[in-house]
Structures are given as structure tokens and as C-alpha cells.
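Loading example: each entry is read as two labelled lines plus one structure line.
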Amino acid sequence: LETFGYLLSGFETALTWWNLLYCLIGVTCGMLIGVLPGLGATAGTALLLPLTFALEPVSAIIMLAGIYYGAMYGGTITSVLINTPGESASVITCMDGYPLAQKGRAGAALGISAIGSFIGGVVSIFGLVLIGPFLAEQALKFGPPEFFALVALGLILLLSLMGKSLIKGFLAALLGLALAFVGQDPTSGIVRFTFGDANLMNGFDFIAIAVGMFGLSELLFNAEEKLGGNAAPPPPKVKGLLPEKDEWKPTMKAIGRGSILGFIIGLIPGTNSVVPSILSYTMEKKLAKDPSRFGKGALEGVAGPETANNSYCGGALIPLLTLGIPTSPAIAILLGAFVMHGLTPGPTLFENNPNIVWGIIASMFIGNALLLILNLPLANVWAKITMVPFRLLFPILLLTMIVGTYTINNSMFDVGAMVVFGVVGYFLKKAEFPLAPIILTFALGGMFEKTLLQSLTIFKGEFLGFFTRPISGTILSIVIIALLFTITASLRNKRFGTEDVDV
Amino acid sequence: VYQLQLLKNLGFYISLFFLSIGSIISLQSFRLDYYSDYGPGPGLLPLWTGILIIILSLMYLVMTVKKDSFPFEKVLPKGEGFINILSCIGSLILFIIIVPYTGFLLGSTVLLFLLFKRGYKWYVALCVSIAVSLFIYWVFGNLLQVPLPTNYYGW
């Protein structure tokens, strides 16, 4: 019950008119990012991070979180209307969403995904409210070995899920780790790998890498063809936002299953939002009375995955808020936002800054409601945005990236680094290297090294010491099993691989 | 013929990239303490990371030579697309070089013009560039009070 008292006071924070405004700005930007091509949730959040400098921490994070889950709603619109997923979690929505649109039922597809997303979002926030404080309390007892084990678990699961080749995934992850070494060492304070350059004293800036890898490289990919092209054909008109009478029951069931599935997967470090949406689609297809409808416009095939990926967002915030461990690049940017505003996500956050945590959680209820309103009556307006030609959009996005990167430290060096990382990311992507591990290991690198060194100091240099403690021993055993499993599966070419995903 | 194929393979250059990063990291970390009086030192993790990168990049080199090759002619866009990429990277570099002298307004107008020119007639491109520069300068610099890269005169 104490929890609900906190939640109520969170609503008090979130319902002030300025926080409502920032929440609205955040979810609207998120929708825009989801709808526009060439900009994912990670790059979008990273770009808008510097704009929150002057804000109160709680307002800043309310806005940035709004961008994160708002993008999930936006991505659906383009998947359904023009068969182009705005972000990767909506790829699966194209399967049945676009056929529905071709049958003139785009409205029903968008309506049910908005409703499903809302329900999924709310269910997962409730889960966060119930589990978060409890987990945070448990995590207070964790020492460096437990944190090291958790970070290792997240990284291993990430690698086993991502990309086609294990070697490429590992190389990408190690590159991120190597980049994280640059600058002052977290334990001894010694300055490393700067080659005498004062700009590198504090290491590479996280935003420069995130914007370069996920923003610029994506833009370069898009610029390969679309620049001189004509505007996209007008998307079909959206009408009739509700499903028919006999469709309600199966779709609501799909939404219910998707909510729970997405939330549970969100809790597992190293997963991404594509995993729950694919799993939900497969599950719905298996459970359906007539599976042959799938791929030809089955409403459950849109409702389940769309619900699951939104519910995932809430679940994925739990490892961040309670342990300080980001599970995906987009969440890693939120971690950056916390740090920039002088807060440390992790077990102590619930205790030291309850007003901030609960304000953010409450704002997510409001944000999801705002998104429902933004989506249903305004579907046609968002659909029109897909018609903005890329040749107009692209230079403006590029300039925004420069400004966004520059403002972090007022440094042109960061802008240069952003360009270099963008080009590197572009070529790595060409050779089918996943980029998400780079940014995640970079974000986690400091914590990984610090907890490892502290643990080894505790264990007097004995690595096996990790296995003398129950929690770290169990988690590291899972890590080793997962690693062996991934290696054998990849040797047999039988991996469950998703594409490189950033949310 | 074999050598020529290697030189035209993007994977080859990527493995060299990783190999050099691994070598730099591991060589540099020899200068740092592997173990200090208090426990493990700042050189421990970088050394192992560097060694792992070297091993994996060599494995990747074998992989890309044997089956997983990415010849430039296949992965890089041709014609207009290629020029788009070059003009994008080029104008970014140009911006970084000229902005300390020209300031934000002029520098960003040049950057935008070079890019808009590829999709629009030059006079349209020029007008849009100036308008967008002024708009971003106003939004970021005045409205949001965010510092922008400026020249000696502050614009």
C-alpha cells in the first residue's frame, strides 16, 4: 500500500502543467520519430537529450521517456499504411497490418494497435509499480560481484540474440568496451588511451557515439537512393477505427497475452523489443482457430505484437530503474539522461529520489493516455507526415544532429567524433555487423570494469570467487551455459537471430 | 586474382580496422599496471580485451576471405547514390572546418545548400537553406538558449 501512496504523489508531480507539457512534447516527438524514416528511437532520444539541459531532472526524463515509448506508437502507422516499418519493433506489424490496409481496413488495424499499445503500456507500468520497489530493495544487498554477473548476463544474452554471426557480435561488443576505456579509469583515476589529446581526457561522449552510429549511419543508408526521388504516394485514407463486433473477443485475448509476454521479456536483460513482437505473432498464429488468415490481414496478428512491444517498454525500464543496467541502446540513452542530471539509476534511486522515480512512472500512465488520444482521431494527420520528401528532411536532420552533438560539451571535437562514428557505423552495417552491442558495451563499460576490479579485489584475485556467492554464482553459471549454447547453435547455424535493433 | 579480390573486399578492411584497434589497446595497456598494490590495476581488462579483439579479428579475416565477403561493388551504392553519400560526408567535414571562421549561420547555410542542391533547383535550395539556418539558430540559440558553434563575432 505504501507503494500506491508513492504513486499518488508521483501523479502530483506528473500532473503539474509544465510536466504535462513536457510529457506531451515528448510523446509527440516520439510519434514523429516513429513515423519519419531514417531516425529511430535511439537517435531521436539522443538528439533531444541536450535540449533538456535547462530543465528540472524529472521534467527532462519525463520528456525523454515519452520519446522512447511514443516512437513505438508512431512506428505502427507507417507499417500499416505504407508497408514500411518506422522502427524495428513494427516490422512484424507489416505482415498483417498492410494487407488489412489494402482491404480498406487500415482504420481498424491502427485503432486496435493504439488500444493494444495503451493496454500493454498500462499493464507493464502496473508491473513496474508492483515489482520495481521490491527488486530495488533486493538489489540494495547486491555487491560488485552480483552487479558484474548481471552486466555479463545482459551482454551475453544480447550477443546471443543479435546479428547473424557470433564473431561479428563479439567484435562489435569489444569495440564498445575498448572505446569505453578511453579517458580516466574509474578505479585508479589514471588517464588511459588519450594519446595526449586533451579532448579525450573524459573519454568519448556517449551522445556522439549514439548519434553517429544510430543517426548518421542510418541517414547515410537512406541517402543512397531517396535523395533525388519524388515524394511518396499518398497513403490510404483512414476511416472506421474500431474492429467489427465478432472480432473484439479474439483481439482482446491477443492483447491480454501480448501484455504479459512483453512485460516478462522486458525484465530479461539483453533482449530487445523485436523479440516479444515476434514471439507474440507466432503465439497468436499457433493459437488461432484458422492460422491461414495470418499474413492476409488477421487483426490478432497486429494486436498481439503491437501490444507486446509497448508492454516490453515498461518492463525494460525495470532493470534500468532498479539495477542501473540498460538493456537496449534507447534505454542506455535514458541512463545517460539520468547521469547528466546528477542522478544514479539503481537500487538507491527509489530510496533517495522517490519523487523523481514515481513522477516518471506516473507520467507514463499519462503519456500512454495522451498517445491514445493523439493516435485515434489524428491518424490521418500522422499518415500525411509520411509524405514529407526525404530530400527536404535529410539536410535538416543532419543539421539537428550537429547541433545536438555540439551542445553536450560545446565541442566541435564531439561533432567530428560523431561524423567518424557515423561513417564507421555505416561501413560496419554494410558488412552486417550489429551496432547495438557497441553502444551498450560502451554504456556499460565503466560499470563492467569497475565491478570486475572491485570483485577481484574482494576475492584477492581469484576469479572463482564469483562462484562462492550464491547470486553471482548462479547468474554467472547461466552466463556460461548461455554462452556455450550460443556457440554450439552458431556452429550449427541454428540461431534464433533478430536483426540489429536499437529499442 | 586472389589478392585483387581481397583488396576489393570491405570485410578485409574491417578486419584490419579491428586488428589495429586490438593491437593499439593491448600494446598501450602494457604501460599500465596490470596489478597494483591494492588489487587488479587499470591495465588488466584492456589487455585482455585487446588480445580478444586481435584473436577475433583474425578469425573474422579468415571468415571474410573464405565465405562471408562483401565486395565494394556490391555493398556501395552506384552513381547518384554514391555521390549522395560523398556529398553528405564531405559537407559535414567542410562544416567542421569552416564553422570557426564563418560562424553558425553562414556555415550551416553552406552545409544545407550543398545537400538541398542535390534534390532541388539551386535558387530553391538557397532560399530553403537560409530559412532553415535562421530557424534553427532562432529555436536553439534564442528560444532554448542552447550554445551553438559560433565564430569570433558570436553568430
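Chain B is about 70% helix and 5% strand.
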